[in-house]
Amino acid sequence: MDPLQLVRLSPLMSRSEGRRELAVGLIDGPVVLDHPDLARSRIKEIPAQIRGSCSHPQSVACTHGTFVAGVLVARRGSSAPAICPGCTLILRPIFSEGANGNGEMPSATPEELASAIADAIGAGANVINLSAALAQPLSRGERQLEQALDYAAKRGVLVVAATGNQGTVGSSAVTRHPWVIAVIGCDLEGRPTTESNLGSSIGRWGLAAPGENITSLGTDGKPQTSGGTSAAAPFVTGAIALLWSEFPGASAARIKQAVTQAGRRSRRTIVPPVLDAWAAYEAMTSN
Question: Is pLDDT of 52 > 60?
Fold first, then answer.
């Protein structure tokens, strides 16, 4: 099965490429901005210590950022899922090109994540994609991160976060926050991947999305196939961006409810359900 069909994104994508007024904040590594399949994308770079364009295209950070950007806003018809190419991408790099990956998922401190979230909100993001692991969380830093997520909720900015790829049961300051939509990876039959981190808060508020053998943009101009929760998260982010493009007057809470709860009863499990983008669309049209 095609990953887009698994989460029923195809019919929503046939309706829209997204609206330029809908801004997706990408907190990740730098991106190959001159990639031919991103040439027509609306990408806005937030000035930060780390540049938005890649200096070392083969670095883990650049490879990671370009891959996720491709899932979100690549040209339709490219090798990438290209869910919402009509949306604006607000790029806030957080991973240094000298950093090492953590199970294909670079890490950042709570303070770094908190600062990046605030920057993305200030730049006008409607939804933020966060595919980052927490590096050595400290209580003080976690409190700062929780405040940043509280601020996102107050401002009506949705936050989608990958749960991580350590195959553990538990949560972090990000994935246990009630405003965050935590995303695990699943195979093309909807079964959780073995490396996805699970937990009660993840099962209660989160979603599963394709995280195995996903093809998107490579930094050398060739397609790249990867997986993990980092690859899964932008499927949810992209679905939110398309849905909000179709219903621009909807509140963040309404969009979040439609995406996470459409057609589902209350959950008491550590494994979240698979994203159903079309059910979310139908939920929006019925109200």
Answer: yes
Of 178, 177, 181, 174, which Cα lies nearest the Cα of 158?
A: 181
> Whole-angstrom Cα distance, residue 156 to residue 154?
6
| Cβ contact 62:54 at 8 Å | yes
Beta strands 127-130 and 214-217 are: unpaired
Q: Dump pLDDT digits (tens) for 182-229.
A: 999 999 999 999 999 999 999 999 999 999 999 999 999 999 999 999
pLDDT digits (tens, 9 = 90+) for 113-164: 999 999 999 999 999 999 887 765 556 688 899 999 999 999 999 999 999 9
Q: Where are the domains of the chain?
A: 3-285
CA distance 116 to 120: 6
Residues sharing a CB contact under 8 Å with residue 237, sequence separation 6 or more, in sequence order:
24, 72, 127, 128, 129, 160
Buried (b) or exposed (e) across 219-229, using 16+ Cβ within 10 A? beeeebebbbb
E strands of 146-226, at which residues?
Answer: 158-162, 180-186, 207-210, 214-217, 223-226
Pick among 1.10.10.10, 3.40.50.200, 3.40.50.720, 2.60.40.10: CATH of 3-285: 3.40.50.200
* Consecutive H or E run containing 234: helix 229-246
pTM over 0.90: yes
- CA-nearest of 230, 180, 182 to 210 is 230
